[in-house]
Amino acid sequence: MPATKIDVSGKTVCITGTFTNFDRGDATAKLEALGARVTGSVSKKTDMLFAGEKAGSKLEKAEELDIPVYGEDELAALFNAPVAKAAKKAPAPAKPKPAANAGDNPFKGKIVVVTGTMKTMDRKEISARLAALGAKVSDSVSSKTNILVAGEKAGSKLAKAEDLGITIMSEDEFIEAAAAAD
After folding, report:
1. For residue range 10-36, what is the model confidence (pLDDT) as tens digits?
2. What residues are paired with 12 via a beta bridge?
3. CB atoms inside a 10 Å sphere around CB 109
4. Whole-structure pTM over 0.90, yes or no?
5. What is the per-residue pLDDT across 88-125, written as a single tens digit (0 to 9) for each?
6. What are the phi and psi torsion angles at 112 (to 5°)?
7. Alpha-carbon dihedral 133, 175, 33, 84, rounded to 10 degrees
8. Environment class of residue 20 by beta-carbon count within 10 Å: exposed (0-12), middle (13-18) or buried (19+)?
9. Cβ(41)–Cβ(14) under 8 Å?
10. Which residues lie across from 81 on neighbouring strands?
11. For the chain, how far is it from start to end, CA to CA, in angstroms?
12. How many Cα atoms occupy the beta-carbon half-sphere of 118 within 13 Å?
């Protein structure tokens, strides 16, 4: 029986638990590239939850609120859909090639957080571009964060990144580095 296509565009989505084939940062970036608004908590405004192993309290709350819950298989099937079309303004080709030399790509294998108001690209586009460059996109700054891409009004994430000595890039610096990584 064919799987029902899940539409996340314009929906408020939450991810919880552990997934086998991808981490939550990558999943968040891919969902955002498909037009979803990804949140860190479940509320009555949540449209759907993607739950992996050890989902815990978010799964319980989603069930209490009768929010549709999907597993890793549905999430993986959603990502197998053409994602390149969602990033309309991204300068990358439809099938981005990895950089020839890892030294040319400052994002490959790095944990990156995007925050603040951007001028040229929106945060979803930047997150999708980072994922295409091999970065793991995260929602929060921690000691494991490698790079913060900060726009105007970055706020507490910028302050925390400064306190932790994390590399901070402006939107323009990100665009330049991403173009050089191609």
Report:
1. 889 888 888 887 777 778 888 888 888
2. 37
3. 11
4. no
5. 333 343 333 343 444 578 898 899 999 988 888 888 88
6. -125, 140
7. -60
8. exposed
9. yes
10. none
11. 40
12. 19
pLDDT in tens, 50-61: 888 887 888 888
Calculate the average pLDDT of the chain.
80
Which residues, in sequence order, are bridge partners of residue 14? 39, 49
| Both structure tokens of 169 | 């890039």
Phi and psi torsions of 170, nearest 5°: -80, 170
Strands 12-16 and 136-138: unpaired
CB atoms within 10 A of CB 155: 10
Q: Which two tokens stand for residue 73?
A: 């298989």
58: enclosing H helix or E strand:
helix 57-64
User: Which one, of 122, 125, 131, lies nearest residue 152 by Cα?
Assistant: 122
CA distances, 98 to each of 73, 130, 178 (Å):
26, 12, 12
Q: How many CA atoms lie within 13 A of 35 on its CB side?
A: 12
Burial class (CB in 10 A: 0-12, 13-18, 19+), 180: exposed
